[in-house]
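Quick one, tokens below. Sequence please?
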């Protein structure tokens, strides 16, 4: 399945909708608040912000937690009207998630919660596959879909990277759960 086959969720006003508690769509207004957890379909683990990792991987996002236990797994999804994209803000360190487009090798395009403001590096389009009840995130920086690196080892095992040209399977698919607000 590629990006064209994923149904983009839009409200009556044409805006992309935010996820709700069950992982299904719910209308998102610019002033809505709420926090969400992102679960990888590939390994069944929740995404965490590794705020205690040493530089240059401080704040890297990894799908490694069996349960949502606190701020480590929480993200605020902030709608940006002008670009019709979302910025994800980590509750663990109060930083926005950025795609590291200047990194090289296995860390190229890794997602890190490290920004205090938002720009193209921190913006994502959310796509929803209604038949599978799954979400995909596409980076505004490089146009690539976020994938979970299940085969990596070491500190970047299960890291999230904006590296896929299309959604080909569970690597690029996520469930989104409302956990607060």
């Amino acid at each position: 399945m590629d990006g064209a086959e994923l149904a983009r969720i839009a409200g009556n006003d044409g805006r992309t909708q935010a996820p709700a508690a069950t992982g299904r769509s719910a209308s998102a207004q610019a002033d809505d608040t709420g926090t969400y957890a992102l679960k990888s379909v590939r390994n069944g683990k929740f995404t965490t912000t590794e705020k205690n990792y040493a530089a240059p991987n401080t704040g890297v996002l990894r799908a490694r937690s069996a349960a949502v236990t606190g701020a480590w797994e929480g993200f605020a999804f902030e709608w940006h009207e002008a670009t019709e994209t979302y910025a994800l803000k980590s509750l663990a360190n109060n930083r926005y998630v950025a795609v590291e487009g200047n990194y090289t090798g296995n860390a190229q395009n890794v997602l890190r919660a490290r920004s205090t403001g938002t720009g193209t590096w921190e913006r994502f389009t959310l796509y929803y596959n209604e038949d599978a009840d799954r979400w995909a995130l596409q980076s505004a920086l490089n146009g690539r879909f976020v994938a979970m690196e299940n085969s990596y080892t070491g500190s970047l095992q299960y890291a999230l990277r904006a590296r896929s040209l299309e959604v080909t399977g569970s690597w690029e698919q996520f469930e989104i759960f409302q956990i607060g607000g």
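Residues 36 and 179 are 5 Å apart (CA to CA). The chain has no helices and 14 strands.
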